[in-house]
Amino acid sequence: MKAKTALGVTAMVLSIAVSAGAELITDHGAPFYNSVTEATAAGQKAGVPTVVKFYTDW
Amino acid sequence: MDTVVFVDSQTIRTFSTDMVLAKINAEVDTAAAKAMAISAYPTLVMLDKDGAEIDRIVGYMPTADFLKTLTDYKNGIGTLADLLNKSKTDTTRSLAFQVADKYKYRGKAADASVWYQKVIATGKTDDSLTGESRMAVADMLRRDKKWDEALAEFTSIEKDFKHAPYTFSADAGIWQAITLSRKGDTTAAITAYEAFLKNHPTSEDTSYAKKQIDKLKSPPPPEEKK
Questions:
Q1: A27 CB near a chain B CB, below 8 Å?
Q2: Domain for residue B42, yes or no?
Q3: B43 vs A53: CB contact, 8 Å cut-off?
């Protein structure tokens, strides 16, 4: 029972972390995701293409 | 690009209704960058709803051109698939060159080489498209770290375009030096930079060559062990 509870908490934390990392960012300019998987899933759901911009900080 | 193109109202509309955008730092998500054979920045890859590549844009584009290219790609215009279909009836060198470039940007060097060779085989030995194609082939060899093959091609281009009204000869000259430097042959790289300065004194790359000679002759001292 104890192990089951611990596992459940871990799964919930992971789920929150994944969602937080993949949320649609809308605060500046064109809205975007920072995850290819999440963006592609959103594109698939909406029936539109996904554009992935690769950049570096240098 | 982020401060101009992606804050434009039309771009915001496009990515709010017609397409979904993802921005990926290639230094952080190296797996995604590697999976999509990204070799220059920025690169924008358009994927269909099943995640298959439609086409890509490499480098900066002004907003209007950028949005038109995306719309064209979405409608299947100007994509690799579209160009390959056209090539069944259109055998012009310019189309073959476009196909070659598309393959090169996707990291498909073997396919790109086949199409560049078509351009080279059907043109004059020193015309512009031949020069562009030969430089592209040599550059792909260099990226693949096939140093000696790349050097042989750059050397040959420098000679063949010596009297042509283009910069290919000078470009090939400096790339020989850069290739030797990347190969780790410092002495030969210095000699190649010096030869470049002697043979192409009016090139816009002369100051770069001088800086590289200084750098190679006086490398920074090794860090002291703590």
A1: no
A2: yes
A3: yes
**Residues contacting B54, CB < 8 A, separation 6+:** A49, B46, B47, B48, B73, B74, B76, B79
The contact set of B with A (CB < 8 A) is 1-2, 6-7, 11-12, 14-16, 18-27, 29, 32-33, 36, 38, 41-51, 54, 70, 73-74
Q: Is residue A53 one of the residues assigned to a domain?
A: no
- Does A34 contact B41 at a Cβ distance shorter than 8 Å? no
pLDDT of the residue at B225: 61
Kindly report, residue by residue over A18-54, the tens digit of the pLDDT: 444 468 998 779 999 999 999 999 999 999 999 999 9
The number of distinct structural domains making up chain A is: 1
Other Cβ atoms less than 10 A from the Cβ of B42: the count is 19
- CATH of residue B10's domain is 3.40.30.10
Determine the structural domain holding residue B156 and report its residue range.
147-217
| Residue B110 counted as domain residue | no
Q: What is the ipTM of this complex?
A: 0.84
In this prediction the pTM is: 0.83
